[in-house]
Write a structure and sequence with these properties.
This protein has helices at residues 5-14, 139-142, 198-203; strands spanning 25-39, 43-46, 51-55, 72-76, 80-87, 95-104, 115-126, 129-137, 162-171, 175-182, 189-191, 194-196, 207-215, 221-231, 247-260, 263-273, 282-289, 296-300, 302-313, 316-327, 335-340, 344-358, 361-377, 383-401. The protein is mainly β. The radius of gyration is 22 Å and the shape is globular. The protein starts with a helix and ends with a strand.
């Protein structure tokens, strides 16, 4: 019964609405979704396997056979979700609202059933001003989404993740500006103890982002996001001394979309410093070490990552996605690299996709080719003497929305 406790609590909370029904309005929505994929290699994955980040490098056994040259396939319904929108009472001239969304993350291949909180946010609006607090999409991903069939949604070229945040936003038909303070929830930064939220919590400083976007009523837009994060990898050195270590990262994003009739072209590019908390490549290394206390200084690796998505149609809607990521190393000499995919020099993905859309239903197919170039890191963390690893990934989905 434990795995159903969260669902029971949610339903009990929704039942006694009679005291508020004169002032609040509730609406429900959601989808039931099944996805299938096949790939010819083992891969680095996130979100329990449905998000493929990059194919794994060669790993040989005692007889010289590649352990990662093994196909993989799965059928899952982990993106089935239920959402509730609440329009609350006004507070003077301030309109209030809220959203709660949960994913039913049970798999069809015996993984069991469970729930994940996807969004939980309260909003206050006066005129063109919005103030939000809760769990919702990070602006690096939420600013502009891809239209891929797969749940990969363009990762690792497209940042992903929902984070607890406090956000102010000004929004008009032609301009959107905002600022946010963010913490980590479902995903954390990479550090000495693996992927964890503790490095940001121990820093005492939330992630910070500012955003500006211009757009038109037809859906075309152009925007930028600037993001800063500071983490503490350790509180104690290997020598047993208390240390005050930080890794700072400043990341810039530019994005845009042109939309005309049934045609859409969208793209995004980023300069990334240690942004491993968002299903992308990145990391950092040690630049200095105190010989007595073991306290260290760090420098982040610098990556560029970009994607382009071209789509056409309505009932039959298809197109192409392309992504590219490149490791430019650190600004100083580094050792002891920590991160995700730090031995990948560059990687690209090309995907072809087609959706068939009818009321309440969507059927989609996609084929993706990903090629990663592995090698050895030089003194600044750049990757040399590369060889390529290729992954082929057909994908299919069927979704019923309500």
């Amino acid at each position: 019964m434990k795995k159903y406790h969260l669902l029971i609590v949610l339903l009990l909370w929704l039942m006694p609405v009679n005291a508020q029904e004169a002032k609040s309005k509730f609406s429900f929505y959601g989808s039931v979704r099944n996805d299938f994929y096949y790939q010819n290699r083992q891969a680095q994955e996130s979100s329990e396997g449905f998000m493929m980040l990059f194919p794994k490098d060669y790993q040989y056994d005692a007889t010289g056979r590649d352990l990662n040259r093994n196909s993989k396939a799965n059928l899952f319904n982990m993106h089935t979700h239920l959402g509730m929108e609440v329009t609350g009472p006004t507070l003077g001239k301030v309109a209030t609202s809220g959203t709660v969304v949960v994913d039913f993350r049970g798999s069809l291949n015996g993984g069991g059933a469970m729930l994940r909180l996807r969004n939980a946010v309260m909003r206050f609006r006066w005129g063109n001003n919005w103030f939000s607090m809760g769990l919702l999409g990070h602006d690096f991903g939420h600013s502009l989404y891809t239209e891929t069939v797969s749940l990969n949604v363009g990762a690792p070229y497209q940042p992903t993740g929902r984070v607890p945040q406090i956000k102010y936003q000004y929004e008009s038909p032609y301009l959107k500006m905002g600022a946010a303070l963010m913490w980590q929830a479902q995903m954390g930064s990479v550090g000495p103890n693996g992927k964890s939220r503790e490095y940001l919590r121990n820093s005492g400083i939330p992630e910070m982002a500012v955003k500006a976007e211009v757009r038109n009523p037809e859906g075309s837009l152009l925007g930028t996001v600037i993001h800063f994060a500071s983490i503490k990898p350790r509180l104690e050195s290997d020598e047993g001394f208390k240390v005050n270590e930080r890794v700072n990262g400043l990341t810039l994003q530019l994005y845009g979309r042109y939309q005309k009739g049934l045609f859409t072209i969208a793209g995004k590019t980023m300069l990334n410093q240690n942004y491993t908390q968002s299903n992308t490549l990145g990391g950092y290394g040690v630049t200095e070490k105190n010989p007595m206390t073991g306290e260290q200084k760090y420098a982040p690796l610098r990556y560029s990552q970009s994607w382009v998505n071209i789509m056409y149609g309505r009932k039959w809607r298809g197109g192409v996605f392309g992504g590219l990521i490149k490791n430019f190393g650190a600004s100083k000499e580094v050792s002891g690299l920590i991160g995700t995919g730090t031995n990948i020099d560059r990687m690209y993905t090309i995907s072809l996709m087609m959706n068939y859309n009818i009321p309440n239903w969507r059927f989609g197919i996609e084929y993706s080719l990903t090629q990663a170039f592995y090698g050895t890191n030089d003194a600044k963390g750049r990757v040399r003497d590369t060889h390529s690893i290729t992954n082929h990934r057909p994908y299919a989905t069927v979704m019923y929305s309500f």
